[in-house]
Amino acid sequence: MKKIAGIFLFVIFIVLASACSDDTSSSDKDSNKEWKPEKPIEIVAPAGAGGGWDTTARMAAKVFNEAGIIEEDIGVVNKAGGGGAVGWAYIAGQKESAYNLFVSSPPIILVPLNGQSEYGHEDFTPLANMIADYGAFAVREDAKWDNLNDLFEDMKKDPESITVVGTSSPGSMDHIQFVKIAKAAGVDVKKIKYVTDPDGVGLTQLLNGSVEVFSTGVSETVEQVKAGKIKVLGITAEERLEGETLSDFPTAKEQGIDTTFVNWRGFFGPADMDSAAVKYYEEKFKELSDSKEFADVRKKYGWNEMYMNSSDYKQFLDEQKEDIKSLLDELGLGK
Fold first, then answer.
1. What is the dotted CATH code of the domain comprising 41-132+263-331?
2. What pTM value is reported for the model?
3. Predicted confidence (pLDDT) per residue in 246-258, tens digit
4. Domain residues of the chain, as ranges?
5. Cα–Cα distance measured from residue 82 to residue 257, given in angstroms and rounded to the nearest whole number
């Protein structure tokens, strides 16, 4: 009888051990599961056609498909409004989806900090940063200033006599990139006269003399510089950019103004995206960043390579928020 009981207990032990083994292997399998898209992917550009977000999204989608990095169709849709807030609200409604991505840059930090959006970078899943773009400060070709120091000397004497125009609202990117450089040059940034051009006619205002300075992206100035209509006094990059015309633009740093402003640009998904999907997109965006095709895109638009994976990107965003918040507080624009 004891022998039968012993055999019975042994059988139970084997069954339990096997079950535990199955559970462990199942758990390991879940933790190492792979994900790949099985239907079309949507990338949202939270602005109108033709701007930096739109161009980045469309170029990424184009190379992904044409280079065979991602086989599923990728569509780009524009959801303009609120400096990005309309697009962010749309993505927030796609919680956990692995098929709804969006491109963003510093406004996803700036806009919530100045109270114009309820959603910030913490409400989404950072996937990968891809590029670094830079700001440019342009004046008319016949303007009396030939460099940033000449401009800032006049602004130190009478800041309100010079009007700066940008596409973004006060407290957002075109404003803040100018303020950061001007502050380092010794200008009283609280007295800078900045006006918003939401309809994209800032360049027209510059050319007709309504404003004196245009704060914009580097790529938005190239054609007008070639046409001899404007000149770029300085850009916010660490060093000069490569490329025809671009290489002629002096940096603020080489003019003795020891600061920079990076218009980083990357991709996000909704909150709570599956970790396997995050890993998939990290790898695909890295493959995109390393491709010759995307290197050609960067060269065409004057972008620098600035890839970060999901965890590095999140840490970077948190640090950026702290830096920008202090500047907005100084301007009295923090919420």
1. 3.40.190.150
2. 0.82
3. 999 999 999 999 9
4. 41-132+263-331, 134-255
5. 32
